[in-house]
Amino acid sequence: MADEEESELSEKQKIDIAKWFLLNSPPGEIQFVAEHVKAVVNDDVLYEEAASEAFPLYNKSHMISLEMPGGIGDVLVTSFGELRGTEYLDPKTAHVAVVDHIKQVYSKKNWFRFVQT
Prior knowledge:
By secondary structure, the chain is an alpha+beta fold. It has three helices and six strands, in the order H-H-H-E-E-E-E-E-E.
C-alpha cells in the first residue's frame, strides 16, 4: 500500500470526539474520564467547549444528586427540575440550587434562593 498522509482533525471533530467520550462515561466516572480527555485534547479552549456542552447533558441523563450545604436537602439534576440554565428546583424545600455542571457542585456565588410564590 502507498504511504498515506495523516490529516489533522478539525476543531469541530476534536470537540465532537471529546463530547462523545464524556457523554459515554460510566455512571459516576465522568470526572475521571474528563481528566484524560483534557490531556488528549491538549487544548483548554476546545476542552472547555466540549465540557460545557457534554456535562449538563450527562448530569441530567444520569440524574446526579447534589446535597445542599447545611443539610437542608438534596437536588436531583434532571430536565424535570430544571428551571433556567443552571438552576434546579428542590421541591421538598422549595429552594433553587445554582449548579456548576462541570465541577458537579453548587455555584459559590449564588448556591440557592427560595422559590417565590
